[in-house]
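Protein in question kept in full:
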Amino acid sequence: MDKNKQEIKPYQKAVYSVILVITLLWSAGILAAPLWAGEPGIRGGISDLLYMFYSKSCHQLESRSLTIAGHIFGVCSRCTSIYAGFLLITMIYPFIKKLNNFSLPPLWVLLTGAGIIALDVFLDAVGVYSNTYLSREITGAFLGLVLPFYIIPGSIMLINEFFTPPKIIPQKEDNAKTG
């Protein structure tokens, strides 16, 4: 049977759904942190926890972060763009590519996304130019837009290989024993 005409299996939908839910929750937290910052009670406590949680993956510098309601997002502008791009493509992924299509884009696409971020950071660090909100958002968005094309099929393949029993190749019978 042609690989692209195979039926999408329940586990493929489940893996995609888990990735989508995690991405939605992650993205919601980025916005909940500033919206609930300074609130009394549990909302304020959740906001503090969210900022602490996101601080493990982002510098959260105020000068490099977008703000809402007078508070910075849970992550900087580049990270916000990475996650927004990732969320956008993850939401529309099944309309772009079948969940049973495990083909990955060429590796140079992923390396280009990471490379332009590294170049933007490097040129800013050595003083060649000062990067801007726009450069950070464009470079972040590019990486965020390509990552789902590696993470979603890669995760589905991982689960498939982990839970699929190995195929045993039948051995030919020895002619001396059967003759």
Q: What stands out?
A: The helical segments are 10-36, 42-54, 77-96, 107-125, 133-146, 148-163, 175-178. The longest helix spans residues 10-36. The chain has one domain: 9-164.
